[in-house]
Structure formats: C-alpha cells, structure tokens
C-alpha cells in the first residue's frame, strides 16, 4: 500500500515537471518570435521615407523589384492590351 502511494506521488511530480518544461519551451519560442517582430518593426521605422514607399509598393505587387506608381500603371495597361489581343 505504501509503495502504491509513493508511485502516485512520483508519477504526479513527473507530470508536473514535464508540463513545466513544455511551458518553458513555449515561452522561449514566443519570446523569439516577439523579438523578431520587434526587430523588423524597428528596421522599418529606421528606413527613409523613400525606401519605405518602395517597400510598400513591392509588398502590394508581390514583385521582387521596386516599382513606382507610374510603372505599375504601365504594367496594368500592357496586361489589359495582352488580354484583348488574345481573345
């Protein structure tokens, strides 16, 4: 009977320590993610206004290169022209 009670106590301690370890790992991964987000926000704030403009245009168009709004308009016109010729 005593052995059974000791086993229960030991097994419950093991479960608690495992859950604490898991909680610590989750907290570490969340902290790393938060650090990365903070770093990217800081780097975006440190950019000049001109480079910020090009970055937002690049994100919206999902191109690998930077375009101005005028260039975006010409690309749209070209694609419309291509679709009318194809049909």
Please give a quick description of this structure.
The protein is mainly alpha-helical and 87 residues long. Helix content is 87%, strand content 0%. It folds into 2 domains: 1-46; 49-87.
Describe it for me?
The structure is a single chain. By secondary structure, this protein is mostly helical. It folds into two domains: 1-46; 49-87. Helices cover 87% and strands 0% of the residues. The chain has helices spanning 2-46, 49-61, 69-86. The chain starts with a helix and ends with a helix.
The dominant shape is: rod-shaped
Classify the secondary structure makeup into a structural class: mainly alpha
Unreliable segments of 5+ consecutive residues: 81-87
Number of domains: 2
Distance between the termini: 86 Å
- Secondary structure tally: strands: 0
Count of alpha and pi helical runs? 3
- Output mean pLDDT: 58
Helix-strand sequence: HHH
In angstroms, what is the radius of gyration?
Answer: 28 Å
Strand coverage percent: under 5%
Largest sheet data: none
Helix content: over 70%
Task: List descriptors.
rod-shaped, 87 residues, mainly alpha, 2 domains
Summarize the topology:
Blueprint: H1 2-46, H2 49-61, H3 69-86
């Amino acid at each position: 009977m005593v052995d059974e009670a000791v086993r229960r106590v030991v097994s419950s301690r093991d479960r608690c320590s495992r859950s604490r370890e898991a909680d610590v790992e989750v907290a570490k991964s969340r902290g790393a993610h938060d650090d990365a987000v903070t770093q990217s926000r800081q780097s975006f704030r440190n950019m000049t206004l001109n480079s910020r403009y090009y970055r937002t245009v690049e994100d919206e168009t999902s191109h690998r290169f930077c375009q101005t709004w005028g260039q975006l308009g010409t690309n749209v016109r070209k694609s419309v022209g291509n679709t009318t010729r194809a049909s």
